[in-house]
Amino acid sequence: MTQPVRTAPTLAEVAAAAGVSRSTASRALNDSPRISEETKKRVRAAAKEVNFVPNARGRALAVGRTEIIAVLVTEPLSELFSDPTYSEFLSGITEELSESSYLPVILQASSTHERNRAREHFERRSFDAVIDVSPYKGSELLEVLRELGVPTVLCGQLEGHPYRDVFSTVYSDDEEGGHFAALAMKDRGRKDIVAVLGPQDNPAVVDRLRGYRAVLGEDLPDANVIYTGWNSGDGYQAMHQILAREIAFDGVLCGSDRIAAGVITALNEAGLSVPADVSVVGFDDHEIAARCVPALTTVRQPLREEGHMAANIALDMIKGAEPTTSVMHMQLIQRDSL
Amino acid sequence: MTQPVRTAPTLAEVAAAAGVSRSTASRALNDSPRISEETKKRVRAAAKEVNFVPNARGRALAVGRTEIIAVLVTEPLSELFSDPTYSEFLSGITEELSESSYLPVILQASSTHERNRAREHFERRSFDAVIDVSPYKGSELLEVLRELGVPTVLCGQLEGHPYRDVFSTVYSDDEEGGHFAALAMKDRGRKDIVAVLGPQDNPAVVDRLRGYRAVLGEDLPDANVIYTGWNSGDGYQAMHQILAREIAFDGVLCGSDRIAAGVITALNEAGLSVPADVSVVGFDDHEIAARCVPALTTVRQPLREEGHMAANIALDMIKGAEPTTSVMHMQLIQRDSL
DNA sequence: GTTAACGGTGCAACCGGTTGTACAACCGCG
DNA sequence: CGCGGTTGTACAACCGGTTGCACCGTTAAC
How far is A192 from chain B (nearest CA, A)? Predict the structure, then answer.
């Protein structure tokens, strides 16, 4: 009596209560056209009566789907949580899936142990699809997914698109973003530009730089490009390096808003005014951007929409759709730092 | 040929390859004592040969377990991600589960829509257990879980323990934490104490205050207790209010390290030195604590360990263990602010 | 030499749904 | 009246594992 372990009603009980067979009950609840309205009504009433909810395990086995989508992340959880970029993107995925009956599972893959577990789950067919948040070329897990034929969506461009015919891809047009930022500098009349970017081996960084270059040409000399980490501390240090060189510059293009925040701090400390003396443009439209002083002009990456898109593509692929590639567009957010 | 949709090998194929029946193959792979070593070896070889991995759906139905544990969070994802307290706790859960074959699913329950979905999943028996990260009294979801008899672990003390006989509980001893912080003040000879706490309706806040009071008595008068939010901005503002009152005080007990960070900033701005003029003690041993100037003395809440514990209890309950309550102990981290 | 005990294996049922197909009842038609 | 065509339902197989129980051959005990 202390444990009300009411064992869940099964389809058989519903069928019995409605006076029909299991198959008829199933079809009635799934609204099959082959069942008469009359019978459907009776079955539905019976189902409500006994409080029937179809069991996930039985259904999964019968229909061959678990209704679970794995979100594969390479970063350790702590980093995942500290980087609002991910938060935004994951929210997008979650939001979209919450409209369906699918459930997202965050699957880490930073350690070897985690990757082995992930692989195991893939082989068990625990998931109907996988969304890889930070795919990298040569990942053994992607190889496994390809072999198993699991519908997969890659978020981010893979150099050389090695899996384009098998996997779907969603990414923001980083080169276009670079364009926008650089054009803003040019329109403002800035001629001597410095760039403080993220890690050199990051594909997004490469594309953004290409965008900058296409617009600015020699106004952004090689010597003025600095690669560093994504944080404000990195931006701060990088700016100090540049100031130490005592070169002339009137604009700084930053690889992230956090970098930009550090850059602005360093500039202010050096007695330079933003935007009077130097223009600064960020990247991401991170929460921090609007709170900078001056408020940061930046390039907005539609992360939430990217999440929506990734989830939708995954759902489509589960239904049998062919792999697709879709590109999200960047947008310049004008504020006061330019 | 473009799609290598190699349909996964089933147990039947393994059995055929090994020349035994399905049941024998199953038992051999599950290392049943009823099967001879000889046969086991043969079956394992066959399984390896055809690359057999047991299908999650089939197994789930047969054993009556999905091997999925839901982590129920009331906060929206953005807040979840911005609050490192959760990050730490979730990491603990994830870490522990990664040692088992169980998979955690983060299930949001902030909107009505989300709660309905959660309920639906519970009724479908999608999860073997639920860990409620921020349970509150009168939650309709807890009612559902109780009725369904789903093993549930509550993280945090529920006033009046309405479900103590059905659900397990894990929580940190906040009163003890208050004790530690207050004792440190007392030992340092501080006599006029101010407390800047989190929201008044938060049970942890109530318990911590009780701990402070038990030690300090009249050294912490009612008028000196301020309730506010958890952030540094809140601490900063609260401190300004107190300074405006022009009362004498030589110690500040803070409800979180972020509050403490704001408090220290405000004190410095007012020309007061920490710890020479005023001692400050935080709460949580948040990442920020060690980086404060001066480094913050604080009460460490064993969040990661709490996550481990919650996950372990959930696993035990799945195996049939009775509900338990376990209390995690706080610890004073001595740094320079006292 | 018969029989009981025992270790090893297979048959078949089961978990809880879905779905292909057979069949019965009914319709209108020639 | 017999026929083909529809409609509504039930039977049984299936998804891919696990498990209770019966059965077999062997060995040891009497």
Answer: 37
Q: How far apart (Å, rounded) are the C-alpha atoms in residues A225 and A245?
A: 13
Q: pLDDT per residue over B73-106, tens digit each?
A: 988 877 777 777 788 899 999 999 999 999 999 9
* Average pLDDT over every residue of A83-94: 87
- Strands A298-300 and A331-333 turn out to be antiparallel
Q: Does B75 touch chain A (CB under 8 A)?
A: no
What are the DSSP calls for A52-117, one per residue?
----HHHHHHHHT---EEEEEE-S-HHHHHH-HHHHHHHHHHHHHHTTSS-EEEEEE-SSHHHHHH
CA separation, residue A92 to residues A122, A126, A167, B78 (Å) = 23, 22, 20, 11
Q: Is B84 on the interface with A (CB under 8 A)?
A: yes
- Write out residues 38-67 of A within 8 Å (CB-CB) of B: 53-61, 64, 66
How many Cβ pairs closer than 8 A exist between chain A and B? 123
Q: Tokens standing for B311?
A: 């996950």
Residue B5 confidence (pLDDT): 56
- Chain D nucleotides reached by a protein CB under 7 Å: 7-20
Model pLDDT, residue A5: 56
What are φ and ψ of residue A336, in 5° steps?
-110, 0
Reading the block at residue A61, the tokens are: 């086995």
Residue with tokens 């049943």: B32
A304 inside 8 A of chain B by CB: no
- For residue range B11-60, list pLDDT tens digits in order: 999 999 999 999 999 999 999 999 999 999 999 999 999 999 999 999 99
| Closest partner CB to B60 (pick from A3, A60, A121) | A60
Write phi, then psi, for B76 (nearest 5 degrees): -65, 155
Nearest one of B28, B50, B54 to B41, comparing CA atoms:
B28
Nearest to A79 by CA among A103, A104, A108, A105: A108
Retrieve residue B68's tokens. 């999925």
Q: Which of A59, A67, A124 to mutate to test the interface with B (most CBs of B within 10 A)?
A: A124
DSSP 8-state class, residue B44? H
* Segment (H or E) for A153: strand A152-155
Q: What local confidence, expressed as pLDDT, does residue B153 receive?
A: 97
Q: Are A277 and A294 in contact (CB under 8 A)?
A: no
Cα distances (angstroms) measured from residue A269 to each of A110, A259, A292: 38, 16, 15
Q: At what angle do helices B203-216 and B174-187 cross, to 10 degrees?
A: 30
Confidence of residue A2 (pLDDT cuts 50, 70, 90): very low
Of all helices (H) and strands (E), which one includes residue B25? helix B22-29
Tell if the CB–CB gap between A64 and B87 is shorter than 8 Å: no
